[in-house]
Design brief:
Blueprint: H1 3-21, E1 29-32, H2 39-47, E2 52-55, H3 58-67, E3 72-75, H4 84-90, E4 93-97, H5 100-113, E5 119-123, H6 129-132, H7 140-147, E6 155-160, H8 167-184, E7 189-191, H9 198-204, E8 208-211, H10 213-216
Parallel strand pairs: 1-8, 2-3, 3-4, 4-5, 5-6, 6-7
The structure holds pyridoxal-5'-phosphate.
Length: about 220
């Protein structure tokens, strides 16, 4: 199947999911996830109007960002403190902020580098943090305090990888977003939903779906 066909198929899935839940398809952002996909394919997607891509690994994303200065990359994968600097240098946005110490380090480095980088807090309400990272609900206040409303790291929303096939988990995240939005008095977006569960995510109120395999096909490329 060609990239164009996959994108069309995805648009149809998004339309259908939106019809079922009375939402406007234009309100759902489709973020292509290009990890382990070659730059040539990313370039092809750029030709179809996509300018921002999700990446999981700092080095791989940095290499692509360096080779494609006209495109933007968003960090979705776990971020170690010692990779914080290249992450701020090469990524337009960081979606995997999940610990106070990381927030503090990013703040220090953002000032040093004189950059502004929107961040999303990755939450994990199901205690799966050992696998993919994510802040528990109980630890959210400490993380928000560490972020301190820093204008260099504006908070855009919440990102999560809910357990698959668990519609209740998606709803729980939407509730958390609604509450936090009220508490902070600012709009927050919700990034959840991947190739296999975008319908569940849209039904529950996701604003951004992050799509890898259903967009680009199977991941095969090994960067180094
Ligand atoms: C890989 C990945 C995706 C995309 O996954 P697919 O199932 O290929 O759509 C989305 N979000 C994160 C955080 C990922 O690591």
């Amino acid at each position: 199947m060609s990239l164009r066909d996959r994108i069309e198929g995805l648009r149809a899935r998004i339309r259908k999911a939106c019809e079922a839940s009375g939402r406007d398809p234009a309100s759902i952002e489709l973020l292509p996830v290009s990890k382990k996909q070659p730059l040539a394919l990313i370039r092809e997607a750029a030709g179809s109007g996509f300018a921002r891509f999700g990446e999981n690994y700092v080095q791989e994303g940095a290499d692509k960002a360096t080779a494609a200065l006209d495109l933007q990359f968003v960090l979705l994968g776990p971020l170690q403190r010692n990779k914080a600097k290249p992450a701020l240098q090469h990524f337009a946005e960081i979606q995997s902020l999940d610990r106070p110490d990381l927030a503090e380090r990013l703040r220090r480095l953002a000032e040093e580098l004189d950059v502004v980088r929107p961040v999303w807090i990755q939450v994990d309400l199901w205690d799966e943090s050992t696998k993919q990272g994510g802040c528990s609900e109980a630890d959210l206040p400490a993380l928000l305090a560490a972020l301190g409303g820093d204008a260099r790291l504006p908070l855009r929303g919440l990102m999560a990888i809910p357990p698959p096939q668990d519609a209740g988990a998606f709803t729980q995240l939407a509730d958390l977003r609604d509450h936090l939005q009220q508490d902070l008095g600012q709009p927050l977006r919700l990034s959840m939903g991947m190739s296999g569960d975008l319908e569940t995510a849209i039904a529950a109120g996701s604003d951004q779906i992050r799509i890898g395999t259903a967009f680009f096909g199977e991941r095969v490329y090994t960067p180094r």
